[in-house]
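@channel anyone free to eyeball this complex?
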Amino acid sequence: MEFSMEMSRRAMLERAMLLVGATVAVGGCKLSPGDGADPNFKFAEAQYRTLTALADTLLPKGDSVGALDAKAPAQIEGLIRNWASKETREKLLGAIDEVGALGEGGDFAALDPAARAAALKPFDAAALENVPPPEGVKVTPPFSGPFHANPGYSKLRQLIVFAFYYSQAALTEELPYEHNPGRWDASVPVTPETRNAGGLGFM
Amino acid sequence: MQFDAIVIGSGMSGGIAAKELCEAGLKTLVIERGRDVDPTEDFTDMKQPWELDNLNMIPEETLAEDYPVQRQCYAVNEATKHWWVKDSEHPYTTPEGKPFTWIRGYHKGGRSIMWGRQSYRMSEMDFAANAKDGHGSDWPIRYADIAPWYDKVESFIGVSGTREGLPQLPDGEFLPGFELNDGEKIFKSAVESEFPGRKVIIGRCANLSKAGPQHEAQGRASCQVRSLCERGCSFKAYHSSLNTSLPAAEATGNMTLVTDAIAAEIVYDPASKRATGVRVIDAKTKEGRTYEAKVIFCCASALGTAQILLNSASEAMPNGLANASDQVGRNIMDHLYALSTAGILPNGPDTTTFGRRPTGIYIPRFRNVTEESDGYLRGYGYQGGASRMGWTSSANQPGVGEEFKERTRRLGPWMIYISGFGEMLPNPENRLTLGKGKDNWGLPIPHIDVSLGPNEMAMVGQILADGKAMIEAAGGQVVAQATEPGVPGLGIHEMGTARMGTDPKTSVLGKFNQAHDVPNLYITDGAAMASAGCQNPSLTYMALSARAADHAVQQLKAGAFG
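replying in thread with the prediction:
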């Protein structure tokens, strides 16, 4: 089976908690204000264009649904408005600006889909390269990290990806999700059509 | 206001105590320091993933400011936020460099709403351990004393599991156990073949794998296999005070329950040498009032109970109520926690599962049972499980476009994860005291001083080595492993602050959980534990509560409390 053995520590925690019967967070897009939020936040038009292009490039519609069907850019705007600390907000905006300058001409959103993907792929791979933890950060194996080369982009990408996979669109069209399974089947054969169950995840 | 009995706390222990006392005909007042709960508003289990706020994340600055301790618990998220205390409103102190993680929920039902539901009996070897090796106080009971009460509680709450015939983990009155999946079956076969003294079994949990008639009569249904338990269960398919014990108490017509009533002290009458009531502070108005009763059960959780007893100091009992032994607040134990090992099974079966089973596997203690230890006392068990790596393992790795989506659809390899839970020895220096500062209600802020001792630290290496060896025995490749135990408290099994014992000079409670110094005061939460075992302890708290309630009723009928 083709699969990277470099597993995400957070993914491992998610699975580990599930295995002992614990609830792991799942969530969607309804937003509520919190302390430190910026209730007036709104993307500049150029930033929103970049974010939309990024979401569409990461998770295009293809033959099912994509990040734009899940309204991922609006969800990210809501998260910046209601969830992100000032520090995170600045990191996310910095990452959007970085992505915005990718590709020929320095305007990512202006590229055609193939050119966008070509520009993003190496940037994405480099940004998600594992690096040692920042100085002063206490590491508690196995649940710390991973630490990525570009933490701002890594967080932005994670939010887009989770906004999509927690959406009604994705959980209806892309991955199977049963809110009330109603039974436990301990052994289900895998077929070519089998997909990962959606919904449960960990941020 | 006069009652037959007062129960302080409506959580795991208080709920069962209230049920038993009410069913015996006692007019019983339950005092809960937190707010009331309305399941229609507070249970979030029916919300779909996309209906939850902020991708189910608590706003970052709220988390940092209000939940710096609670956030360390895996179950804290936007959907469950309302179940956890704000650390900013309920402070405690610890010595520099000695953190303690106190995970709490103040509301009707307490932590029984968010508990992990793992339900194991302690065994004869656990109740005899202190006498055998000389640590702590000898338990004044043995397994035979509590066994019928385990039966009673298990039948009432509903515990699923399998009968294994293990002396270190007695069987009980079980509902059908959830089935192991194929990865776990491979692991079980390999471990039991390679290490004949070890067993891999399904975790025993307080979820109704199949609701019996007695459960359906309580309005409870079988588990829907959602693993959303901490949000509250609209099917009442797992045991919590809200789902089972408090409704049973209420059905008798004998229960009065007050919320937002913080127990400040238990009032003691030196003339009669009895506790006469409980002084509470209204959480909202901060006004005080006193309730009176013939018998009092303190079930405020191990640390909460110690706070109340110490704050009940009087001229007659200057060290705190029922504290002639000077053991109140001491001997805090948790379990060694977060000693986790994870591995991939490269050649696992080409199967998966359906449903989100609310329990995992359990490996009962084998060190100092069927196999010798590396020189330490007591031992440890493991919780864990196996599953296919899911979509998030792909989602967090580099990738773009259709290729990324396609990869995320595909099932990952089998992962096996096990985490050791090790027994802490009772140590009188691990203690809670009252500080000079005051909280919002004028009560002293507790100071918690707990550290792991040499016996615990000696266990750590072997927990990790055994974990690795078992995963490798199944053909697994270990890909991640802890290097040190979690901060004490994170096991959320704190106990021992008013221990049972045979000698009033060295213990707080006698064999029926009665305070040696105050016979109409019973303490049946984790405070009563003379040793910790390595099993999840809530089932034992509940069995002790039911047993003590029966004793109190008999004593009342005999006129022992005036």
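from a first look: Chain A touches chain B through 99 residues (CB under 8 Å).
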